[in-house]
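It is worth pausing here to work through a concrete case rather than discussing structure prediction in the abstract. The textbook approach is simple: state the sequence, then state the predicted structure, then interpret. We follow exactly that order.
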Amino acid sequence: LKSFPSLPECFLHDLGLIENIALNAENLSEQDIENKFSSLSLAFKTDRVTLQERLELQHRQRDIAERNAEDEIRQLKTSIRSLNRVCQDSETREVLQRVEKQVQVLQQST
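Step two, the predicted structure:
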């Protein structure tokens, strides 16, 4: 879950804050340092403002994915039961039973 901070790498690069780029404060004027600090401070404040919204979006997406997985498993179990009713072959029924057990394991893991 990527919650905080969600600052683009290019923004950090432009400020000279990426690991690969050594920011040499000796080469910067006091005004440059203050501008970089102000930019970064504003970015953190903006990021913090959107944090709750991003977190709620992540939770909604997770909930939807979980519901979809549960629906798919339920449909799969229904299909297996339907196949089990129409299959007369004992070998096929055994395979279906194994598949049903695997689906149960899958359901328990979600």
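Step three, interpretation. Helices lie at 9-15, 30-86, 90-109. The chain has a mean pLDDT of 84.
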